[in-house]
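Repro case for the chain-ordering regression, as requested:
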Amino acid sequence: MDEATLLAALSDDLDLAFEGLVRARQDRLYSIALRILGDPTEAEDAAQDAFIRAYRALGGWDAERIAALRLDAWLATIVVNVARTRARRRATTGGRASLTFLDELDHPSGTSAETPHGRLDRRQAIEAWANRLLALPERYRAPIVLRHVDGLGYDEIAIALERPEGTVKAQVHRGLALLRAALDAESRSDPSPSGTHPAAHLQEVLR
Amino acid sequence: MTHPLIAPSDDELAAELGELRTDAPSSLLPRTLVAVGLADAYTTMPSPIGPLYVAFNGLGVVAVETAPDGRAFERSHVARFGRPAYAVAALPEKLERAIARRLDGGRRVSIELDLRGRTGFERDVWTKALEIPRGEVRPYGWIAAEIGRPKAVRAVGTALGHNPVPLIVPCHRVVRSDGMIGQYSLGGPANKRTILEAEGLDPDELETLARAGIRYIGSDTTRIYCLPSCHAARRITGAHRVPFHSATDGERAGYRACRRCRPTGVSAAA
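-- result from build under test --
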Protein backbone atom coordinates (compact mmCIF):
# COMPACT_ATOMS: atom_id res chain seq x y z
CA MET A 1 0.00 0.00 0.00
CA ASP A 2 1.42 3.41 -0.87
CA GLU A 3 2.01 6.27 1.53
CA ALA A 4 -0.85 8.43 0.28
CA THR A 5 -3.44 5.66 0.74
CA LEU A 6 -2.16 4.81 4.21
CA LEU A 7 -2.02 8.44 5.28
CA ALA A 8 -5.53 9.12 4.04
CA ALA A 9 -6.85 6.16 6.03
CA LEU A 10 -4.83 7.07 9.14
CA SER A 11 -5.99 10.68 9.16
CA ASP A 12 -9.57 9.53 8.65
CA ASP A 13 -9.76 6.99 11.51
CA LEU A 14 -6.55 6.01 13.26
CA ASP A 15 -8.00 3.06 15.18
CA LEU A 16 -9.61 1.63 12.08
CA ALA A 17 -6.53 2.14 9.87
CA PHE A 18 -3.71 1.25 12.24
CA GLU A 19 -3.88 -2.50 11.68
CA GLY A 20 -3.58 -1.83 7.95
CA LEU A 21 -0.47 0.27 8.58
CA VAL A 22 1.12 -2.52 10.64
CA ARG A 23 0.28 -5.11 7.99
CA ALA A 24 1.63 -2.91 5.20
CA ARG A 25 4.88 -1.92 6.93
CA GLN A 26 5.72 -4.68 9.44
CA ASP A 27 8.14 -6.51 7.13
CA ARG A 28 9.99 -3.28 6.40
CA LEU A 29 10.31 -2.11 10.01
CA TYR A 30 11.24 -5.59 11.17
CA SER A 31 13.89 -5.94 8.45
CA ILE A 32 15.43 -2.57 9.30
CA ALA A 33 15.55 -3.48 13.00
CA LEU A 34 16.89 -6.96 12.30
CA ARG A 35 19.71 -5.74 10.05
CA ILE A 36 20.72 -3.05 12.54
CA LEU A 37 20.44 -5.23 15.66
CA GLY A 38 21.17 -8.71 14.31
CA ASP A 39 18.98 -10.52 16.82
CA PRO A 40 15.44 -11.61 15.76
CA THR A 41 13.89 -11.26 19.23
CA GLU A 42 15.41 -7.81 19.74
CA ALA A 43 14.29 -6.85 16.24
CA GLU A 44 10.69 -7.91 16.90
CA ASP A 45 10.66 -5.92 20.16
CA ALA A 46 12.12 -2.90 18.37
CA ALA A 47 9.58 -3.09 15.54
CA GLN A 48 6.75 -3.39 18.06
CA ASP A 49 8.07 -0.41 20.04
CA ALA A 50 8.32 1.61 16.85
CA PHE A 51 4.69 0.89 15.91
CA ILE A 52 3.51 1.72 19.45
CA ARG A 53 5.35 5.05 19.31
CA ALA A 54 3.88 5.76 15.90
CA TYR A 55 0.36 4.97 17.14
CA ARG A 56 0.71 7.23 20.16
CA ALA A 57 2.14 10.08 18.12
CA LEU A 58 -0.55 9.80 15.45
CA GLY A 59 -3.21 9.75 18.18
CA GLY A 60 -2.17 13.23 19.27
CA TRP A 61 -2.12 14.79 15.81
CA ASP A 62 -4.89 16.32 13.76
CA ALA A 63 -5.78 15.04 10.29
CA GLU A 64 -3.86 17.83 8.56
CA ARG A 65 -0.60 17.02 10.29
CA ILE A 66 -1.00 13.30 9.56
CA ALA A 67 -1.75 13.95 5.90
CA ALA A 68 1.42 16.07 5.58
CA LEU A 69 3.64 13.31 6.96
CA ARG A 70 6.53 11.68 5.02
CA LEU A 71 5.30 8.36 6.36
CA ASP A 72 8.10 5.97 5.41
CA ALA A 73 10.89 8.37 6.35
CA TRP A 74 9.12 9.03 9.65
CA LEU A 75 8.66 5.31 10.44
CA ALA A 76 12.31 4.74 9.56
CA THR A 77 13.37 7.50 11.98
CA ILE A 78 11.42 5.84 14.77
CA VAL A 79 12.63 2.30 14.20
CA VAL A 80 16.26 3.36 13.74
CA ASN A 81 16.14 5.36 16.98
CA VAL A 82 14.46 2.54 18.88
CA ALA A 83 16.99 0.03 17.53
CA ARG A 84 19.93 2.27 18.46
CA THR A 85 18.60 2.75 21.99
CA ARG A 86 18.11 -0.98 22.36
CA ALA A 87 21.58 -1.70 21.03
CA ARG A 88 23.05 0.68 23.61
CA ARG A 89 21.02 -0.83 26.44
CA ARG A 90 21.50 -4.41 25.32
CA ALA A 91 24.74 -4.88 27.23
CA THR A 92 23.22 -3.94 30.59
CA THR A 93 19.62 -5.20 30.60
CA GLY A 94 18.03 -8.47 29.59
CA GLY A 95 15.12 -8.79 27.18
CA ARG A 96 11.65 -8.15 28.56
CA ALA A 97 9.11 -10.90 28.91
CA SER A 98 6.73 -10.93 25.99
CA LEU A 99 3.49 -12.74 25.32
CA THR A 100 3.60 -16.16 23.73
CA PHE A 101 0.83 -16.37 21.17
CA LEU A 102 -0.54 -19.87 20.96
CA ASP A 103 -1.21 -19.84 17.22
CA GLU A 104 2.50 -19.19 16.98
CA LEU A 105 3.24 -22.44 18.80
CA ASP A 106 0.96 -24.34 16.46
CA HIS A 107 2.82 -23.17 13.35
CA PRO A 108 6.42 -22.63 14.31
CA SER A 109 8.32 -20.54 11.79
CA GLY A 110 11.76 -21.59 10.66
CA THR A 111 12.90 -24.19 8.24
CA SER A 112 12.54 -27.93 8.26
CA ALA A 113 15.52 -30.26 8.51
CA GLU A 114 15.16 -31.35 4.88
CA THR A 115 15.86 -28.01 3.27
CA PRO A 116 17.09 -28.58 -0.29
CA HIS A 117 20.75 -27.81 -0.81
CA GLY A 118 20.14 -24.82 -3.03
CA ARG A 119 17.97 -23.16 -0.40
CA LEU A 120 20.50 -23.92 2.29
CA ASP A 121 23.30 -22.30 0.26
CA ARG A 122 21.10 -19.30 -0.33
CA ARG A 123 20.37 -19.01 3.38
CA GLN A 124 24.06 -19.22 4.20
CA ALA A 125 24.79 -16.52 1.65
CA ILE A 126 22.11 -14.26 3.18
CA GLU A 127 23.48 -14.96 6.64
CA ALA A 128 26.97 -14.01 5.46
CA TRP A 129 25.68 -10.72 4.03
CA ALA A 130 23.78 -10.00 7.24
CA ASN A 131 27.00 -10.52 9.21
CA ARG A 132 29.04 -8.30 6.87
CA LEU A 133 26.43 -5.61 7.38
CA LEU A 134 26.50 -6.01 11.17
CA ALA A 135 30.27 -5.61 11.10
CA LEU A 136 29.95 -2.17 9.49
CA PRO A 137 30.30 0.82 11.81
CA GLU A 138 26.87 2.11 12.81
CA ARG A 139 27.20 5.38 10.87
CA TYR A 140 27.43 3.38 7.61
CA ARG A 141 25.16 0.51 8.58
CA ALA A 142 21.97 2.51 9.12
CA PRO A 143 22.17 4.38 5.77
CA ILE A 144 23.04 1.16 3.91
CA VAL A 145 20.13 -0.69 5.55
CA LEU A 146 17.69 2.11 4.74
CA ARG A 147 18.95 2.50 1.15
CA HIS A 148 19.55 -1.08 0.05
CA VAL A 149 17.62 -3.35 2.40
CA ASP A 150 14.56 -1.13 2.78
CA GLY A 151 14.84 0.81 -0.47
CA LEU A 152 14.21 4.34 0.80
CA GLY A 153 15.26 7.28 -1.38
CA TYR A 154 18.22 9.45 -0.34
CA ASP A 155 15.89 12.35 0.49
CA GLU A 156 13.92 10.08 2.83
CA ILE A 157 17.06 8.69 4.44
CA ALA A 158 18.29 12.25 5.02
CA ILE A 159 15.03 12.98 6.89
CA ALA A 160 15.13 9.68 8.78
CA LEU A 161 18.73 10.03 9.95
CA GLU A 162 18.67 13.82 10.24
CA ARG A 163 21.78 14.13 8.10
CA PRO A 164 22.28 16.15 4.94
CA GLU A 165 21.47 14.22 1.76
CA GLY A 166 25.07 14.60 0.57
CA THR A 167 26.37 13.04 3.78
CA VAL A 168 23.94 10.14 3.45
CA LYS A 169 25.00 9.51 -0.16
CA ALA A 170 28.67 9.55 0.82
CA GLN A 171 28.01 7.19 3.74
CA VAL A 172 26.14 4.73 1.53
CA HIS A 173 28.97 4.90 -1.01
CA ARG A 174 31.61 4.38 1.68
CA GLY A 175 29.57 1.55 3.21
CA LEU A 176 29.39 -0.28 -0.11
CA ALA A 177 33.14 0.17 -0.56
CA LEU A 178 33.72 -1.37 2.86
CA LEU A 179 31.47 -4.32 2.04
CA ARG A 180 33.35 -4.83 -1.21
CA ALA A 181 36.64 -4.75 0.65
CA ALA A 182 35.34 -7.24 3.21
CA LEU A 183 34.26 -9.59 0.43
CA ASP A 184 37.66 -9.26 -1.19
CA ALA A 185 39.45 -9.98 2.10
CA GLU A 186 37.29 -13.09 2.63
CA SER A 187 38.08 -14.52 -0.81
CA ARG A 188 41.82 -13.87 -0.32
CA SER A 189 42.20 -15.43 3.11
CA ASP A 190 39.87 -18.39 2.70
CA PRO A 191 38.59 -19.75 -0.59
CA SER A 192 36.09 -22.07 1.09
CA PRO A 193 32.74 -20.34 1.67
CA SER A 194 32.25 -21.90 5.09
CA GLY A 195 35.42 -20.34 6.49
CA THR A 196 36.07 -17.53 8.90
CA HIS A 197 33.28 -15.25 10.07
CA PRO A 198 33.10 -12.38 7.58
CA ALA A 199 33.06 -9.86 10.39
CA ALA A 200 36.63 -10.79 11.24
CA HIS A 201 37.76 -9.77 7.77
CA LEU A 202 35.91 -6.51 7.86
CA GLN A 203 37.47 -5.68 11.19
CA GLU A 204 40.84 -6.12 9.48
CA VAL A 205 39.84 -3.91 6.61
CA LEU A 206 38.69 -1.20 8.99
CA ARG A 207 41.87 -1.24 11.04
CA MET B 1 44.43 -18.11 -6.29
CA THR B 2 41.80 -20.75 -6.93
CA HIS B 3 38.90 -18.27 -6.91
CA PRO B 4 39.78 -15.13 -8.80
CA LEU B 5 37.11 -12.68 -7.74
CA ILE B 6 35.86 -9.75 -9.74
CA ALA B 7 34.75 -7.02 -7.36
CA PRO B 8 30.94 -6.75 -7.46
CA SER B 9 29.39 -3.58 -8.84
CA ASP B 10 27.16 -1.31 -6.74
CA ASP B 11 24.13 -2.84 -8.43
CA GLU B 12 25.25 -6.35 -7.60
CA LEU B 13 25.86 -5.37 -4.00
CA ALA B 14 22.45 -3.69 -3.88
CA ALA B 15 20.83 -6.87 -5.18
CA GLU B 16 22.51 -8.95 -2.47
CA LEU B 17 21.51 -6.48 0.23
CA GLY B 18 17.95 -6.41 -1.10
CA GLU B 19 17.77 -10.11 -0.23
CA LEU B 20 18.16 -9.16 3.42
CA ARG B 21 14.62 -7.90 3.52
CA THR B 22 12.65 -10.49 5.43
CA ASP B 23 9.12 -11.24 6.63
CA ALA B 24 8.19 -10.10 10.11
CA PRO B 25 7.34 -12.93 12.53
CA SER B 26 3.61 -13.61 12.61
CA SER B 27 3.44 -12.59 16.28
CA LEU B 28 4.43 -8.98 15.53
CA LEU B 29 0.99 -7.89 14.33
CA PRO B 30 -1.08 -9.33 17.21
CA ARG B 31 1.35 -8.23 19.92
CA THR B 32 1.48 -4.71 18.48
CA LEU B 33 -2.31 -4.44 18.30
CA VAL B 34 -2.61 -5.83 21.84
CA ALA B 35 -0.02 -3.36 23.14
CA VAL B 36 -1.97 -0.33 21.88
CA GLY B 37 -5.37 -1.74 22.85
CA LEU B 38 -6.74 -2.41 19.36
CA ALA B 39 -6.85 -6.15 20.10
CA ASP B 40 -6.81 -8.22 23.26
CA ALA B 41 -4.88 -11.24 24.44
CA TYR B 42 -6.52 -13.89 26.57
CA THR B 43 -5.75 -16.90 28.68
CA THR B 44 -7.36 -18.71 31.60
CA MET B 45 -6.90 -18.19 35.32
CA PRO B 46 -7.94 -20.38 38.26
CA SER B 47 -10.84 -19.30 40.49
CA PRO B 48 -13.15 -20.80 43.13
CA ILE B 49 -15.69 -21.48 40.35
CA GLY B 50 -13.15 -23.12 38.03
CA PRO B 51 -10.96 -21.70 35.26
CA LEU B 52 -12.05 -18.30 33.97
CA TYR B 53 -11.09 -16.58 30.73
CA VAL B 54 -9.29 -13.30 31.25
CA ALA B 55 -8.65 -10.84 28.43
CA PHE B 56 -6.17 -7.95 28.63
CA ASN B 57 -4.20 -5.52 26.52
CA GLY B 58 -1.54 -2.86 26.98
CA LEU B 59 -4.03 -0.60 28.77
CA GLY B 60 -5.13 -3.16 31.36
CA VAL B 61 -7.48 -6.05 32.05
CA VAL B 62 -10.49 -6.00 29.73
CA ALA B 63 -12.73 -8.88 30.77
CA VAL B 64 -13.14 -11.87 33.04
CA GLU B 65 -15.63 -14.35 31.66
CA THR B 66 -16.83 -17.93 31.69
CA ALA B 67 -16.94 -19.79 28.37
CA PRO B 68 -17.21 -23.42 27.27
CA ASP B 69 -13.92 -23.16 25.34
CA GLY B 70 -11.44 -20.73 23.79
CA ARG B 71 -13.20 -20.44 20.44
CA ALA B 72 -16.51 -19.64 22.14
CA PHE B 73 -14.75 -17.04 24.27
CA GLU B 74 -13.18 -15.42 21.18
CA ARG B 75 -16.56 -15.22 19.46
CA SER B 76 -18.35 -13.65 22.40
CA HIS B 77 -15.41 -11.31 23.03
CA VAL B 78 -15.37 -9.85 19.54
CA ALA B 79 -19.16 -9.43 19.66
CA ARG B 80 -18.93 -7.66 23.01
CA PHE B 81 -15.89 -5.44 22.51
CA GLY B 82 -15.50 -5.25 18.74
CA ARG B 83 -11.89 -6.40 19.03
CA PRO B 84 -10.28 -9.76 18.31
CA ALA B 85 -8.92 -11.83 21.21
CA TYR B 86 -5.73 -13.80 20.64
CA ALA B 87 -4.89 -16.80 22.82
CA VAL B 88 -1.63 -16.51 24.74
CA ALA B 89 0.16 -19.09 26.88
CA ALA B 90 0.00 -17.12 30.13
CA LEU B 91 -0.72 -13.78 31.75
CA PRO B 92 2.25 -11.43 32.00
CA GLU B 93 3.96 -12.42 35.24
CA LYS B 94 3.39 -9.12 37.03
CA LEU B 95 -0.31 -9.12 36.21
CA GLU B 96 -0.70 -12.74 37.25
CA ARG B 97 0.87 -11.99 40.64
CA ALA B 98 -1.28 -8.89 41.13
CA ILE B 99 -4.51 -10.76 40.34
CA ALA B 100 -3.56 -13.61 42.70
CA ARG B 101 -2.87 -11.12 45.49
CA ARG B 102 -6.13 -9.26 44.83
CA LEU B 103 -8.18 -12.49 44.93
CA ASP B 104 -6.36 -13.39 48.11
CA GLY B 105 -7.78 -10.27 49.73
CA GLY B 106 -4.92 -7.82 49.17
CA ARG B 107 -6.47 -4.36 49.01
CA ARG B 108 -3.44 -2.30 48.15
CA VAL B 109 -2.88 -4.17 44.91
CA SER B 110 -3.04 -2.03 41.81
CA ILE B 111 -4.38 -3.67 38.65
CA GLU B 112 -4.76 -1.55 35.53
CA LEU B 113 -8.17 -1.95 33.88
CA ASP B 114 -9.16 -1.06 30.32
CA LEU B 115 -12.47 0.70 30.96
CA ARG B 116 -12.68 2.70 27.74
CA GLY B 117 -16.25 3.64 26.91
CA ARG B 118 -17.54 3.16 30.46
CA THR B 119 -19.44 5.92 32.24
CA GLY B 120 -18.15 7.85 35.23
CA PHE B 121 -21.01 6.42 37.28
CA GLU B 122 -20.00 2.84 36.43
CA ARG B 123 -16.39 3.57 37.34
CA ASP B 124 -17.49 5.10 40.65
CA VAL B 125 -19.56 2.00 41.47
CA TRP B 126 -16.74 -0.42 40.58
CA THR B 127 -14.12 1.62 42.44
CA LYS B 128 -16.31 1.63 45.52
CA ALA B 129 -16.85 -2.16 45.28
CA LEU B 130 -13.06 -2.51 45.49
CA GLU B 131 -13.21 -1.15 49.04
CA ILE B 132 -15.30 -4.05 50.32
CA PRO B 133 -12.96 -6.38 52.20
CA ARG B 134 -12.69 -10.05 51.36
CA GLY B 135 -15.10 -12.09 53.47
CA GLU B 136 -17.63 -9.26 53.77
CA VAL B 137 -20.60 -8.02 51.75
CA ARG B 138 -22.41 -4.70 51.39
CA PRO B 139 -25.91 -3.99 50.07
CA TYR B 140 -26.47 -2.15 46.76
CA GLY B 141 -27.80 0.75 48.80
CA TRP B 142 -24.48 1.02 50.63
CA ILE B 143 -22.62 1.62 47.34
CA ALA B 144 -25.28 4.12 46.27
CA ALA B 145 -24.98 6.03 49.55
CA GLU B 146 -21.16 5.92 49.57
CA ILE B 147 -20.82 7.37 46.07
CA GLY B 148 -23.24 10.15 46.92
CA ARG B 149 -26.13 8.82 44.80
CA PRO B 150 -28.37 7.36 47.54
CA LYS B 151 -31.39 7.10 45.24
CA ALA B 152 -29.54 5.28 42.46
CA VAL B 153 -29.77 1.82 44.05
CA ARG B 154 -31.20 0.20 40.91
CA ALA B 155 -28.58 1.85 38.70
CA VAL B 156 -25.90 0.54 41.04
CA GLY B 157 -27.29 -2.96 40.52
CA THR B 158 -27.20 -2.47 36.75
CA ALA B 159 -23.63 -1.12 36.83
CA LEU B 160 -22.50 -4.11 38.90
CA GLY B 161 -24.22 -6.44 36.44
CA HIS B 162 -22.16 -4.79 33.69
CA ASN B 163 -18.88 -5.16 35.56
CA PRO B 164 -16.56 -6.50 32.83
CA VAL B 165 -13.97 -7.79 35.30
CA PRO B 166 -15.82 -9.79 37.99
CA LEU B 167 -13.63 -11.15 40.80
CA ILE B 168 -10.97 -8.52 40.02
CA VAL B 169 -13.65 -5.92 40.81
CA PRO B 170 -15.50 -7.89 43.53
CA CYS B 171 -19.11 -7.24 42.57
CA HIS B 172 -19.88 -10.61 44.19
CA ARG B 173 -19.46 -8.80 47.52
CA VAL B 174 -22.50 -6.64 46.83
CA VAL B 175 -25.83 -8.14 47.85
CA ARG B 176 -29.47 -7.17 47.70
CA SER B 177 -30.57 -4.35 49.97
CA ASP B 178 -32.80 -6.80 51.92
CA GLY B 179 -29.69 -8.82 52.72
CA MET B 180 -30.35 -11.71 50.30
CA ILE B 181 -27.36 -12.76 48.19
CA GLY B 182 -29.01 -11.89 44.87
CA GLN B 183 -27.99 -12.14 41.23
CA TYR B 184 -24.54 -12.58 39.73
CA SER B 185 -23.40 -11.82 36.21
CA LEU B 186 -20.65 -14.44 36.11
CA GLY B 187 -22.63 -17.61 35.45
CA GLY B 188 -25.49 -17.03 37.93
CA PRO B 189 -26.21 -16.78 41.69
CA ALA B 190 -24.81 -20.22 42.60
CA ASN B 191 -21.35 -18.97 41.57
CA LYS B 192 -21.77 -15.93 43.78
CA ARG B 193 -22.40 -18.16 46.80
CA THR B 194 -19.43 -20.38 45.95
CA ILE B 195 -17.09 -17.40 45.68
CA LEU B 196 -18.37 -15.85 48.93
CA GLU B 197 -17.93 -19.20 50.70
CA ALA B 198 -14.39 -19.44 49.36
CA GLU B 199 -13.80 -16.02 50.89
CA GLY B 200 -14.86 -17.28 54.31
CA LEU B 201 -18.47 -16.11 54.39
CA ASP B 202 -21.55 -18.24 55.12
CA PRO B 203 -24.25 -17.15 52.63
CA ASP B 204 -26.92 -19.31 54.32
CA GLU B 205 -26.32 -17.65 57.66
CA LEU B 206 -26.57 -14.19 56.05
CA GLU B 207 -29.84 -15.11 54.35
CA THR B 208 -31.28 -16.50 57.59
CA LEU B 209 -30.70 -13.10 59.20
CA ALA B 210 -32.11 -11.37 56.11
CA ARG B 211 -35.29 -13.46 56.20
CA ALA B 212 -35.75 -12.58 59.87
CA GLY B 213 -35.55 -8.91 58.85
CA ILE B 214 -32.28 -8.38 60.71
CA ARG B 215 -30.16 -5.81 58.88
CA TYR B 216 -27.65 -4.85 61.58
CA ILE B 217 -25.86 -6.41 64.52
CA GLY B 218 -24.93 -4.35 67.56
CA SER B 219 -22.63 -5.07 70.47
CA ASP B 220 -23.97 -4.28 73.92
CA THR B 221 -20.44 -3.78 75.21
CA THR B 222 -19.24 -1.27 72.60
CA ARG B 223 -22.73 0.04 71.76
CA ILE B 224 -21.79 0.08 68.09
CA TYR B 225 -23.90 -1.45 65.30
CA CYS B 226 -22.57 -2.95 62.06
CA LEU B 227 -23.64 -4.63 58.86
CA PRO B 228 -23.90 -8.37 59.67
CA SER B 229 -20.83 -9.42 57.64
CA CYS B 230 -18.59 -6.65 59.00
CA HIS B 231 -15.43 -8.08 60.46
CA ALA B 232 -16.19 -6.26 63.73
CA ALA B 233 -19.76 -7.64 63.91
CA ARG B 234 -18.57 -11.18 63.37
CA ARG B 235 -16.32 -10.91 66.43
CA ILE B 236 -19.22 -10.08 68.76
CA THR B 237 -19.85 -13.17 70.87
CA GLY B 238 -23.34 -14.67 71.08
CA ALA B 239 -24.47 -13.20 74.38
CA HIS B 240 -23.50 -9.67 73.38
CA ARG B 241 -25.06 -9.65 69.89
CA VAL B 242 -28.03 -7.29 69.60
CA PRO B 243 -30.00 -7.55 66.34
CA PHE B 244 -31.56 -4.44 64.78
CA HIS B 245 -34.13 -4.24 61.97
CA SER B 246 -33.12 -0.72 61.00
CA ALA B 247 -30.48 1.89 61.68
CA THR B 248 -33.17 3.96 63.37
CA ASP B 249 -33.75 1.12 65.86
CA GLY B 250 -30.08 1.06 66.63
CA GLU B 251 -29.80 4.82 67.06
CA ARG B 252 -32.91 4.81 69.27
CA ALA B 253 -31.33 2.16 71.48
CA GLY B 254 -28.35 4.49 71.91
CA TYR B 255 -25.95 2.70 69.50
CA ARG B 256 -23.72 4.45 67.00
CA ALA B 257 -22.82 3.29 63.50
CA CYS B 258 -19.57 1.38 62.95
CA ARG B 259 -16.94 3.57 61.30
CA ARG B 260 -15.49 0.62 59.47
CA CYS B 261 -18.51 -0.75 57.61
CA ARG B 262 -20.40 2.57 57.70
CA PRO B 263 -23.96 1.16 57.84
CA THR B 264 -25.65 4.60 57.87
CA GLY B 265 -27.51 5.70 54.78
CA VAL B 266 -28.15 2.14 53.70
CA SER B 267 -31.61 1.70 55.20
CA ALA B 268 -32.81 5.03 53.86
CA ALA B 269 -31.91 3.88 50.38
CA ALA B 270 -33.07 0.29 50.75
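Ordering looks correct now. The longest helix of chain A spans residues 165-189.
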